[in-house]
Amino acid sequence: MTINLTLIVQALHFFIAYGIVSRLVLKPALYLIEKEKAANRALLDEILAQQALLVTKHEHKRESWQRCQRYFTEHKPLFDQEATRLIPMSIETTENLDHNQLDTVCQEVVKALKVKVLHD
């Protein structure tokens, strides 16, 4: 088997072309791919951090809501029998009223409550 000079020259050209392509095309392409992967990892880390912050904020909101509910139940005003007499009718009977009658009842209740609040 004889090795031809053209075969050696073609092999040399192949390795030179491979070196040029790997330096000019493959390395920058691999660098860009790694850079994009790093950017994606940074975005995912930021998303996880924001989700953790959101969970913390929801927990804080829930605790604040519970504190407000406890405060209201501890400091709610006493609803005595006199206040129930200020309301001219029961809630069940208001379901049968038309719009004008309901507005009248609401105005009467508001007046009675204003008088009660302002004079006590």
Would you summarize the structure shown here?
The chain is an all-alpha fold and 120 residues long. The chain is built from 4 helices and no strands.
User: Helix tally?
Assistant: 4
Domain tally: 2
Which of globular, elongated, flat, extended, rod-shaped describes the shape?
rod-shaped
Rg, nearest Å:
40 Å
Question: What sequence of helices (H) and strands (E) makes up the elements?
Answer: HHHH
Q: What is the average per-residue confidence, as pLDDT, rounded to a whole number? A: 83
| Portion in strands | under 5%
Helix coverage percent of residues?
Answer: over 70%
Structural class: mainly alpha
Report low-confidence residues grouped into runs of 5 or more: none
- The tally of beta strands, per DSSP, is 0
**What is the first-to-last residue Cα distance?**
119 Å
Main beta sheet: strand number and arrangement? none
Description:
The protein folds into 2 domains: 1-76; 79-120. The chain is mostly helical and 120 residues long. The relative contact order is 0.04. 85% of the residues lie in helices and 0% in strands. The radius of gyration is 40 Å and the shape is rod-shaped.
Topology (SSEs and partners):
Layout: H1 5-75, H2 81-86, H3 91-94, H4 99-119
Name a few traits of the molecule.
single chain, mainly alpha, 0% strand, rod-shaped
